[in-house]
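Field reference: sequence -> structure
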Amino acid sequence: MRHSPSTDEREDHDSRSPVVRFCAKLADANPFNFFIFGVILANAAVLGLETYPGVAGPHGDTLRTLNEVFLAIFVAELVIRLVGFGARPQDFFRSGWNIFDFLVIVASFAPGLRDNAMLLRIARLARVLRIVRLLPDLRVLVVAIGRSIPGVLSLAVLAVLVLFVYGMIGWTIFHDHAPQQYGTIGESMLTLFITLTLENLPEQIALGRDLSDWTLLYFISYALIAAFLIFNILIGVVINSLEEARAIENARERADRLEQGGDAGPTVDDRIADVRAALDALEADVRGS
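Structure field:
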């Protein structure tokens, strides 16, 4: 949850000024982070209240004042964390989450932003997204989503290819029998894309059997390949990315403990990973024998 400055990368602890030491300690304090967490939730609540005309009308000035107070708190938090890096404020930007926080706060002061209600609401909404930095598990999920994008894109290409092939076959079979659903390759692919959910599969099977019972082979093979196989591959990609993201987060936490001079011993996840590796090696020896 913390991206605090390292004592090895900044000035020595004893040589830093009291203000820098105080800011560094405050930025790492759990009560301070819990307070910021609460402010973010309150900011989200105020943004939600602004969508109710019965509240925004009579209390609009109060809500706008609260938004300004929240922004002032976020600016103060940003300054505290920057000052905590002492003579090396550039180290603050070594963390992607810190860069995100900085851009979100600075964007609130962009020229002309306050004259555009839509952009102002988007900037305020972006401040709510900072809650990701304060929740380790949520941060792992966000990293996992980012790492899964290449695999998901490759899987999307495969899915489009399957839809095109089955769309062409469906157009060949049903373009006269069901022109609204299979009259063109576009309509055929759209129908098959909707069928990925399997909700309308019984209707599609009934439509095909009106023409021939052999169309069962078409729909069953499509369900097996597109709906089951592709979705299971997608699940595998996401799970693999989630494991990679958790390993990255664990490595970052161990690095933080090392930088702070704490115990960087193995975590429970590390011990589980070691046990799994030992079991894999044992299974390989058994198969080899």
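Note: The domain at 138-288 is CATH 1.10.287.70 (Helix Hairpins).
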